[in-house]
Design a protein that fits this description.
This protein has 191 residues and is α/β, with parallel strands linked by helices. It is built from 7 helices and 7 strands; from the N terminus they run ααβαβαββααβαββ. Bound molecules: S-adenosylmethionine (SAM).
């Protein structure tokens, strides 16, 4: 979706086609265990996993309003920058619909919705540190589901993952006039 369409008064990202694709793909694959949703936002994806699987779900978000909103939906939520506060090998599944829209520096603005939408100049500003720490918190046989867009350069995201010892495979996709959304399933290289 175009950045201009998303600008408005909201401070928490409302579920959209990317949220729904991520939820559909994750729900098909999660049996149970401990699940972390990074960037939980409104709590839509986490709530569906909580309601439709036997998993224990935790959310985290950098935006305090999003944390409040997800908690109000019954999701245990930690305010954090990505996965930093979580111990090694904590999760069987990690899901993330990151900010991925490439945004020139002169179009950046400073409000909570920017942290939901802008992926910096190349769209990978948040994906990069997420992938750098993902292997630490993901159990050896764990799986992560990362929403990426053709706007974010999917091959470049795959390369970043491989550079940190992770393997990727496409687990689902959806095409729109301006972009193709893909959910990457990510595992440890040697799992
Ligand atoms: C595209 S929205 C997705 C929201 C929700 N998961 C969904 O799918 O509808 C991205 C979310 O990531 C959060 N976020 C951005 N940078 C983050 C960071 N460094 N650590 C944690 N959350 C972050 C934003 O605040 C926002 O809630």
């Amino acid at each position: 979706m175009k950045l201009a369409e998303r600008r408005g008064m909201a401070t928490v990202y409302e579920p959209a086609e990317d949220s729904r694709l991520l939820a559909t793909v994750a729900l098909d694959r999660i049996g149970g265990g401990r699940v972390l949703e990074v960037g939980v936002g409104s709590g839509y994806v986490a709530s569906r996993i909580d309601a439709e699987t036997s998993a224990t779900v935790v959310g985290c978000d950098i935006n305090p309003e999003a944390c409040r909103r997800a908690r109000s939906e019954g999701i245990e939520t930690v305010r954090s920058n990505l996965t930093r506060p979580f111990a090694a090998d904590s999760f069987d599944t990690v899901v993330f619909n990151p900010p991925y829209l490439p945004t020139p520096p002169d179009e950046e603005w400073d409000d909570p919705l920017e942290h939901a939408l802008s992926g910096g100049e190349d769209g990978r500003r948040v994906v990069r540190p997420f992938l750098a720490d993902l292997g630490r918190v993901l159990r050896p046989d764990g799986r992560a589901y990362l929403l990426v867009s053709s706007l974010t350069d999917i091959d470049a995201v795959v390369e970043l993952a491989e550079g940190t010892g992770l393997r990727t495979a496409e687990a689902g996709d959806a095409s729109f006039p301006f972009e193709r959304l893909v959910v990457l399933e990510i595992t440890h290289m040697n799992s």
